[in-house]
Amino acid sequence: MLVAGIDIGSLATKAVIYDGADGAIISSACIPSGARPPQAGERVLQQVLEAADVDRDAIAVIVATGYGREAISVADSTVTEITCAARGAHFYEPETRTVIDIGGQDSKAIRVDPRGYPLDFALNDRCAAGTGRFLEVMAGALETSVDGLERLALEAIAPVAIGRTCTVFAESEIVGLLASGVDRAAIAAGLCRSVALRTAGLARQVGVEPRVTLIGGVALNRAIVRALSDVLAVEICVPALPQLVVATGAALVASDRADRHPSDLDRRCS
Length: 270
Description:
By secondary structure, the protein is α/β, with parallel strands linked by helices. It has helices at 37-52, 81-92, 132-141, 146-155, 167-179, 184-206, 222-232, 245-260, 262-269; strands spanning 2-8, 12-19, 24-32, 59-65, 77-78, 98-102, 107-112, 118-124, 212-215, 236-237.
């Protein structure tokens, strides 16, 4: 039975189509959310349908998650990112017990049980510090891209201490460090360590239990992964496509609901 999960994030919108019979993802897509997240949700769904070469009617259940989940009309139901992050991380890494999700505008730490269901969580959704947006602004202050910031951080001999976590004040601090002649690579490494320290604080609120899995687009940044591993003193696991993990979790929830109420689905499709 085919189902779909859509994750409408602040910066990117993702979708996957999951085959419950085979337990496999058969198509996926990721596009910018832009100024109209509901439309982004519809577009990304169309992309995964075309990639899977199936019609909308072939999808038994669509579940949406993310900050824009309530606004999307193509979804049959919605579920929180906490549940989807836990389920998705467990799907990719079944030994996961701690999930850290660094998104575009917020970050989360979730302790999960052996089945991939959340037991506890901590959330930073009131400040952009320690998020993808923070890294974008700091990269701009260093006159580079986010990828460039990663490369600089990986080249650094040692990080410089960054005292400010607020995005606005941190940017001013970076300008001051550059004016003082501090090496850009050391600043980049310090920024990554700053993100790691803030994220580690969230994780410690719920309890850090191996295996620790890092998800979200920021998980693609190797310097962040290295810094977080150093701060937490644990190995950090990153799935091959960390930005799709939450959408995958939504698809798993959709599969559960399709299995639970097959008669309702039959009536809907008749």
